[in-house]
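seq as requested:
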Amino acid sequence: MRLGHNPRVPHIRLIHEDEATGALAEQYRAAIGRAGKVFNIVKAMCHRPAVLERSMELYKEVMFGPSELSRAERELLAVVVSRANDCHY
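struct tokens:
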């Protein structure tokens, strides 16, 4: 067994930036424009570019749309929820 590989755990083959074509390449370029890189949470949706696009629309609305919460408060909530879910990315 390879180090870090557990055959009992589902695995998603991530498509890397240099392999992306079409709509996925467009989404990856947008991700790089937003964050300077393509995070694995984005790559996890690589096999469904339309779903990735809708997910990014939701993310942008939640994080940047009208709200009584400041941008910093929204980021803090995202960090707290990620930590509570033991999600490290």
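The helical segments are 22-35, 40-43, 49-64, 71-84.
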